[in-house]
Specification:
Helix content: 40-55%
Number of helices: 10
Order of helices and strands: EHEHEHEHEHEHHEHHHE
Shape: elongated
CATH superfamily of the largest domain: Spore Coat Polysaccharide Biosynthesis Protein SpsA, Chain A
Mean pLDDT: 86
Number of domains: 2
Radius of gyration: 25 Å
Number of strands: 8
Strand order of the largest sheet: 7-5-6-4-1-2-3-8
Bound molecules: uridine-5'-diphosphate, magnesium ion
Distance between the termini: 21 Å
């Protein structure tokens, strides 16, 4: 009999956990498969761990891992996948924004249609601040232009995959993980399901605007080194331009014998060019910082308590 692991990252979700469990078991029980629900407590400051322990006390197929502090959703998903025992693994948010009703369709696509994974994307962003949607759209445009991994606009982390594909994902051992890119990068056949955005049942989103911006930069830097190359292009263009200007000035001096002029324009050029230099120094710094963190090879999380 097939065996499904449901990986659920949770951060301050004490109210959502029992609701999620109720909903998902309704669906899973109808599905005629063995399952394991694996909650990952990502250093919650509320009673999330107690909520997990209470469920685990009642149902033997509820497992939990509890981190020593908040390591972020990426770390929580990684830990969940590393501890999942099923032949199929699905990652779900606990706030019921990832509808459990799609699970039977997902299993069918993998088992009968031969897909390796089934991913989901939101076709609408209703209920989201308009500015946030706008920035999200710009982000997907940029990252898809720059990187070779396909990153789908509106893609959620809600995804079911075979153990084989999950093993490949786990082989990507980087410290700065950007799952939306990693899923696409490893390849395999993926079926996409689309659905309308659903509001979370309780609690509120853990993503502030700044956290999202940081996440977006993380994604771009993790999946492309093109920004580093832009510096070379600018360097070449500016040098070429400077050379032409030099020729022009020498010729003008020889033919017309102009006196010194154009202090203001000289300053503008100097400021512009040094500004650009700073920007590219910054970009190099971003990559260097990542390289530094990667070479330290620190653990991506610590587990303080678990029932596995
Ligand atoms: N989450 C997590 N660690 C974090 C932030 C979020 O494990 O540091 C979990 C959270 O509990 C939820 C999921 O990741 O199950 C998605 O979070 P959220 O609903 O806040 O994101 P959104 O749906 O708004 O993108
Ligand atoms: Mg959510």
């Amino acid at each position: 009999m097939r065996n499904l692991s449901v990986v659920v990252p949770c951060y301050n979700e004490q109210e959502a956990i029992p609701l999620f469990y109720q909903e998902i078991t309704l669906v899973l029980k109808k599905m005629n498969c063995d399952y394991q629900i694996l909650f990952v407590n990502d250093g919650s400051k509320d009673q999330s761990l107690q909520a997990m322990e209470a469920l685990a006390g009642k149902a033997p197929n509820v497992k939990y891992l509890s981190f020593s502090r908040n390591f972020g959703k990426e770390a929580a998903m990684l830990a969940g996948m590393q501890h999942a025992t099923g032949d199929l693994v699905v990652i779900m948010d606990v706030d019921l924004q990832d509808p459990p009703a799609l699970l039977p369709e997902m299993i069918k696509a993998i088992e009968n249609e031969g897909y390796d994974s089934v991913a989901t994307r939101r076709v609408s962003r209703t209920g989201e601040p308009p500015l946030r949607s706008l920035f999200a759209r710009i982000f997907y445009k940029i990252i898809n232009k720059l990187s070779d991994a396909e990153i789908v606009d509106g893609a959620r982390d809600y995804r079911m995959m075979t153990r084989q594909m999950m093993q490949s994902i786990l082989e990507l051992n980087e410290y700065h993980r950007f799952s939306k890119g990693i899923f696409g990068w490893v390849g395999y056949e993926t079926k996409w399901l689309a659905y309308e955005n659903i509001k979370r049942v309780v609690g509120e989103t853990k993503w502030s605007f700044w956290k999202l911006l940081k996440y977006a930069l993380e994604g771009i830097i993790a999946f492309t080194t093109i920004p580093l190359r832009i510096a070379s292009f600018f360097g070449i263009a500016f040098s070429g331009f400077a050379f032409l200007l030099l020729v022009l000035i020498v010729v003008r001096r020889l033919i017309f014998g102009d006196a010194v002029a154009g202090w203001a324009s000289t300053m503008c050029v100097i400021i512009l060019v040094s500004g650009l230099q700073m920007i590219f120094l910054g970009i190099m710094g971003e990559y260097l910082a990542r390289t530094y963190m990667e070479t330290k090879a620190r653990p991506k999380y610590f587990i303080k308590k678990k029932n596995i």
